[in-house]
């Protein structure tokens, strides 16, 4: 019983130290990248088979390989994520969002799947780790608006048990169905053709 009590006391002290070191006493306008206990992104970024470069852009830390389609198109990618960020804030009616977001850009769907075990064509959001993973290729549009919306909405508003709300709002934020075709246009076509 004494050992259990000592372990609990040590754990409680450690939790208080962690909370104190990772919480801000005063609000800040600076972008803050918070640590995560189970840092999923660290497992990807700190492995020794495929190294990544990184840049910072607004609320984002973007990781990519130097010899890829993503590296050659960084100005367009920066524009797309800046729009996705402001679009999400506007839809959610959130004035400020100061959490840093990590984006990891992979060379292909297969490369991303090798690291995550998930085969996703447009991207994956891990809101609990402030992270989004995207395959960036010449043949597929990355779904920045959809996945960044997930990250911001789940952190700003909290989780929801309603999958329709979570996915429906992200689809609304994206407003495209894998091609440059707005969802209202697709809905209008369905209504006109019964």
Helices, strands, pairings?
Blueprint: H1 2-21, H2 40-45, E1 53-57, E2 60-64, H3 69-72, H4 74-92, E3 101-106, H5 109-116, E4 124-126, E5 131-135, H6 144-156, H7 163-174, H8 183-192
Parallel strand pairs: 2-3, 3-5
Antiparallel strand pairs: 1-2, 4-5
Helix pairs in contact: 4-6, 6-7
Descriptive labels:
alpha/beta; 5 strands; Glutaredoxin; 194 residues
From the N-terminal CA to the C-terminal CA, the straight-line distance is 70 Å
| Major sheet attributes | 5 strands, mixed
The name of the CATH topology is Glutaredoxin
Overall 3D shape: globular
Q: Identify the CATH class.
A: Alpha Beta
CATH architecture: 3-Layer(aba) Sandwich
Gyration radius, rounded: 19 Å
Structure overview:
- This protein has 194 residues and is of the alpha/beta class.
- 47% of the residues lie in helices and 12% in strands.
- It has 8 helices and 5 strands, in the order H-H-E-E-H-H-E-H-E-E-H-H-H.
- A 5-stranded mixed β-sheet has the order 1-2-3-5-4, with helices on both faces.
- A hairpin with a 4-residue loop joins strand 4 and strand 5 (131-135).
- Helix 4 (74-92) packs across helix 6 and helix 6 (144-156) crosses helix 7.
- It is globular and about 75 Å long.
